[in-house]
């Protein structure tokens, strides 16, 4: 376990693979920690330098008072990658992680040579929706909404398996302040214009049964970027890397090969 102090927050991060490997950075979703990517890592090509981290208010990172701005989340990530000497990575962002990817690519294209935007969009939800979510979390915590979150995250077959308990436990054990803070960051984000100006290789991934970022919403964002590719994973919800790790890893590997990263 590693901690990096940005000056504003202390970020928990993990690096796997050789120091001279091609860097791949993973940013996870709201309500999850860096273990989100555990199912796919053994299935990726060997020799990569794999970097994962818990965003502020999540996992083992520190939890500043809410609300957070998307610019702060992007800045945290920028400082971490500079600390690790990362250049020209492939950045894989899921949900809010995909928003961080879009913002970071706009700000520091020297850090990112290609990116995967998974189950995300340039704008997710409405301000009123997120305001309601923040109030509910602040009033009662995450537990009362956990079952609804699982319905948005996973297709019905996965919700019928014992593994669902792992992910329900993960979300309810995140700090309520961190969940509310990152919800506020999503609420205030609209990246349609900056994302449309991006020019780099992009793969978009959607889950056919995603209740948080439906395929049409994901595709709308991917279509903003010339030459971007789009794939749908069938019978998957918001976290297809969990439900269908082999198919997800195959898509990532194909993309890494197509951009010459492996």
Automatic annotation (TrEMBL):
Keyword match Isomerase: no
Database matches in InterPro entries: AB_hydrolase_1, AB_hydrolase_fold, AB_hydrolase_sf, PcaD/CatD
Record key words, sorted: Hydrolase
Gene3D superfamilies listed in its UniProt record: alpha/beta hydrolase
Sequence ranges assigned to domain AB hydrolase-1 in this UniProt record: 24-250
TM stretches of this protein: none
PANTHER family the record matches: AB HYDROLASE SUPERFAMILY PROTEIN YCLE (PTHR43798:SF31), MONOACYLGLYCEROL LIPASE (PTHR43798)
Name of the featured protein: 3-oxoadipate enol-lactonase
Lineage: Bacteria, Pseudomonadati, Pseudomonadota, Alphaproteobacteria, Rhodobacterales
